[in-house]
Amino acid sequence: MIKLVNVNMNFRGKQTLKDINLTIEPGEIMVIIGPSGSGKSTLLRLIIGLLKPTSGEVWVNGREITGIAEDELNKIRLEMGMVFQYSALFDSMSVGENVAFGLRQHTSMAEEEIARTVRRKLRMVGLRGQENTMPNELSGGMKKRVSLARAIAINPHIVLYDEPTAGLDPIMSNTIDRLIVSTRRMIDSTSVVVTHDMHSAFAIADRIAMIYDGSIIETGTPAMIKQSENPIVAKFIRGAAT
Ligand code: ADP
Ligand code: MG
Predict the structure, then answer these.
(1) Which residues line ligand 1 (CB under 6 A)?
(2) How far apart, in whole angstroms, are the C-alpha atoms of residue 222 and residue 207?
(3) What pLDDT, in 10s, does the model give residues 133-177?
(4) Is 202 left (phi over 0), alpha (psi -120 to 50) or beta?
(5) pTM for the predicted model, two decimal places
(6) Which of 17, 42, 85 to mutate to test ligand 1, by most ligand atoms within 8 A of the CB atom?
(7) Which atom of ligand 1 is nearest to the CA of 51?
């Protein structure tokens, strides 16, 4: 579903991602862990085509996206939804309009169908009937859920999450974790979740990849990661979990 082959990313000569090789299978929840500044968000932006790698290949759904034209890339982006770290809602639009945004931009759905879809997605994230609420009336956790409803409005094959539980209390983090798992089931999607919340990582991952200083230093099931003999991995898991 997603494959990165020998990907390098430099910013102004600084090597931010180094020779990344990663394959994410259809339907999988892949969790990317690693310290702040290790390159996790950059990795997501490469997958969604917001950045082009300095070298290497990025494959999404059977297509290599680094060399393709912008209109082709836009079509592929329609297969992806992203939940950004700071929710990134449009503050001047109601919750319903935020969720409807992509449907209006990219589909020819009639108004009634848009309204029905928005209603269904808000129900999925536990925000039934909140169509007319404005973002500034919402808590951080509710914003995150609107952001998720917006990301999945067009039933993307791939959902990318950047630090979805950052800044949330444990109960809300747990709610978001369960939504990530139930979203995968409901829209049959492949998910990539960037986090440094170890509790969340182990709760939802099929596989975990740890990135450190721009390199993937370990990939495996949660059980394998827990038993990793790589001292950096072991230390990170212990440190970040407390
Ligand atoms: P993480 O998400 O793991 O915290 P990032 O992917 O955001 O890490 O950043 C990794 C490194 O790349 C950081 O040193 C950051 O400063 C740098 N970086 C990220 N984006 C840019 C950019 N657009 N221009 C220059 N440097 C960047
Ligand atoms: Mg980041």
Answers:
(1) 11, 16, 34, 36-42
(2) 6
(3) 999 999 999 999 999 999 999 999 999 999 999 989 999 999 999
(4) alpha
(5) 0.94
(6) 42
(7) 23
